[in-house]
Write a structure and sequence with these properties.
globular; 2 domains; alpha+beta; five-stranded antiparallel β-sheet; about 290 residues; C8orf32 fold; Immunoglobulin-like
Length: about 290
């Protein structure tokens, strides 16, 4: 698939602010099933962008605006080509054992953050037991089915800093919460798993439009044993919000241990003003011939 993506973010401050420092993780990644042909960022007020690659391989754009201003606009545009990933491996649980898998999984095998409170221990133990299937791949697929069935997708039920306790208490959340819960359970099963940020092209089922407003999205990648002669593990994308494996409609930006490793925009400014945020993402599906280097 070929996509044109525009991610527009605007901050309006109730009073003038200064020393506005920001870090952006918004450039679509280059993977075996995705490439970014074009990428542009415009910041208003104007600022010089500094680029570096973070620990997990995502490009980070940093900038600072020292002068007084009352509005900040970040306009991101990209052209991306994606393809369907190959069939995921379905090796048995025994293939998770050994140093080779542990080395490949690294920190993505470790639990993170505050442990769930005692009042939800039994619920999580039940989910962990119910969410285990005959193979690691089947377990990933089962969790993607269970989580949206047990929890309501409801914007506003949680916030960006919510914990798994908040999801269990509310019985509802958003994609970020569903992914964090799936990561916890997969890691408890010994499956390395990581948080993925990006965009999901979600056109109406009737296919009546090739240009849609979407939200930034989150899914996960699980490290599944290859099962072949070399038993090389493979990262496989899965979307517990939409009960599916990730495919050519998922555009990856970056990954990390949790959301806090890959926020699209993170910043701080000097001043007592409140900030009013408006953000929009528009994805347009293109004819392959119109993509510059498709």
């Amino acid at each position: 698939m070929n996509y044109d993506i525009r991610y527009l973010t605007e901050y309006h401050y109730t009073e003038p602010v200064t020393d506005n420092l920001n870090a952006l993780r918004v450039r679509p990644a280059t993977t075996s099933t995705q490439r970014c042909d074009e990428f542009h960022v415009r910041v208003e007020p104007e600022a010089r962008l500094h680029r570096h690659i973070d620990y997990f391989g995502a490009e980070v754009l940093e900038f600072g605006i020292p002068r007084v201003h009352e509005r900040l606009t970040i306009d991101v545009r990209a052209r991306v080509v994606t393809s369907e990933p190959p069939e995921p491996p379905d090796a048995p649980w025994e293939h998770l054992e050994g140093e080779a898998y542990a080395e490949a999984g690294g920190e993505f095998l470790l639990t993170m953050g505050e442990p769930p409170s005692d009042q939800y221990t039994a619920r999580l133990t039940e989910l962990q037991s119910t969410g285990r299937a005959q193979t690691p791949l089947a377990t990933v697929q089962l969790l993607c089915e269970l989580i949206p069935d047990l929890f309501e997708y409801r914007p506003g039920a949680t916030y960006v800093g919510s914990s798994i306790d908040d999801l269990l208490r509310a019985g509802a959340g958003v994609c970020q919460d569903f992914v964090h819960l799936a990561l916890l359970i997969l890691r408890r099963h010994g499956i390395a798993a990581r948080y993925v940020s990006g965009y999901l092209f979600s056109a109406p089922e009737d296919g009546g439009t090739d240009s849609v407003e979407v939200l930034t999205h989150a899914w996960l990648e699980a490290l599944l044993p290859g099962g072949g002669k070399r038993n090389e593990p493979v990262w496989v994308g899965a979307d517990p919000t939409n009960n599916c494996l990730a495919g050519e409609t998922h555009v990856k930006v970056g990954h990390g241990r949790a959301y806090s490793d890959v926020p699209p925009i993170k910043g701080v400014y000097r001043g007592t003003a409140d900030a009013e945020l408006s953000a929009s993402v528009r994805m347009t599906r293109l004819d392959p011939a119109s993509s510059a280097r498709a």
